[in-house]
Amino acid sequence: MQNRTSIIFGADFAVMNGIIAKFAKRFIAGMTNPLFYAKIILFGEYGMIEDSQGLVVPYSFYKGTLKFSENHSEFEAKSNGHLRKYADFLQELKLPEDFTLDVQRFKDDIDAGLFFDSNIPQGYGVGSSGALVAAIFEKYSLTRHDPENISKENLKNLKAVFGEMESYFHGKSSGMDPLICYMNLPILIENRENLDRVSIPDGEEGKGAIFLIDSGMTGETGPMIQIFFEKMKTEGFRKTLKEEFIRYNNACIDAFLKKDMNPFFRNLKKLSHWAYEHFRPMIPESIFNIWKKGLDSNAYYLKLCGSGGGGYILGFTKDYEKAEKMLEGFQKEVIYRF
């Protein structure tokens, strides 16, 4: 018969073994869970709804990943609670067979302390929900989808699936944000039906730059999209969107991908001026004056970054040092040099 000490030691050893196994599982999961980066719509905001081209790129400054936590901080507990509600939504979602999710495993992991560890700001137009959707799909999809080898047709199907998954956050989603976050590659949207991976010119340490300006307030996608659809009921707005905005937008994309900067900035000014005239409700109040200042001085041009209403605004300039001085007082982040 074993003495009492050996029984206690055996029990303690078993408990310790369980704790070690649990922490090992969490550690391995943390090591293997990939990072999902934010995204930036360089061109195509709103226009893509009406079949314009779009150019969307990943932005590695902001990122998120799924992790486990034994002792929830307030942030981790809140994230865990959001995931729990989202899992209920996903359980009711009917996805195509090749894109089915293991929602029960997702729920089990939530019970075990899963949360989304992210520094991507919400309401800033850089894809906070897109990164989350991409992370969940990558971890819980029953079929493996290799971003490097995915076909053009499956790319389109994946975008549609991501649209269904992200609709929980915005009411309606194109699926573009999660697709960019998942692929971690620039994507050119040619029209509603066609999209493909694309190479953007290598950045270099020149005087020019594409940069973000913090408007100092968050924006909500839903209300901004509602304003857009209300404007679309007006024939004059529909006409100018199709005949001017889309033309300037597509010309900017074409020139940027060719790194042909003279026609790029020529069309960019037209695009910025059009947005200043027709997207007023989407431009944060704090940005009105500097938007006009850029147009008047030709020192830089601004455009929406996503749906607008707040968050980040995109800036483009041939001389960043000059633009930076003119935009003193605003928080800025350079995302591309040329």
Q: What is the number of independent domains?
A: 2
Mean pLDDT rating: 88
- The assigned structural class equals alpha+beta
Which architecture name of the largest domain does CATH use? Answer: 2-Layer Sandwich
In the CATH hierarchy, the third-tier topology of the largest domain is known as Ribosomal Protein S5, domain 2
Q: Gyration radius, to the nearest Å? A: 23 Å
- Would you count the extended β strands for me? 9
The poorly predicted ranges are: 1-31
Residues in β-strands, percent:
15-25%
Individual helix count: 11
Distance between the termini: 79 Å
What does the overall shape look like?
globular
Q: For this structure, what is the CATH class of the largest domain?
A: Alpha Beta
Q: Could you state the order of secondary-structure elements as H and E?
A: HEEHHEHHHEEEHHHHEEHE
Q: How would you characterize the largest beta sheet? A: 5 strands, antiparallel
Helix share of residues?
A: 40-55%
